[in-house]
Amino acid sequence: MSDHDNAQVACLMMNAWNTRDIERYLALLSDDCVVQSSHEAPARGRDAAGKTIQRHLGAVPDLWFDVTRVVATEDVVVVNWRALGSLRGDVGVAGVARKPERVEGCTLVGVRHGRVVRLWHYDEPLRLVTEQASRVALAGIE
Known about the structure:
The protein has about 140 residues and is of the alpha+beta class. The protein has a single domain (about 5-140), classed as Nuclear Transport Factor 2, Chain: A (Roll), CATH 3.10.450.50. It has 4 helices and 6 strands, in the order ααββαββββα. The chain has a 6-stranded mixed β-sheet with strand order 2-1-6-5-4-3. β3 and β4 (about 75-85) form a beta hairpin. The protein starts with a helix and ends with a helix. The mean pLDDT is about 80.
């Protein structure tokens, strides 16, 4: 497939996430895909990837990715994005008001024969935890 075709696969995947079309998202993955982020163990296979997606949407139901740049070369596509979402009330640091958080990151998408075989997600989760902990500490001072 061409670089353009591989970029299209990555964009379809991001669009399926944003529209909550999990079936379409999973249909883009190969049976033996590996999905991994910078802060959790890899999910191996389409079924495991589906469970990971459901877990993320359960924790941050309004999560939205604004794709800012897509660069494709051979069988790897880099998708830069800004995400916006609010943690569900029972997730995260206790006592922290749930307001939408913005996170920047990128996803590297490995594509083979029109299917996603590997996803690597990189974002700023530690920044969010640090900010939430700081809010808790400041709330205790006031």
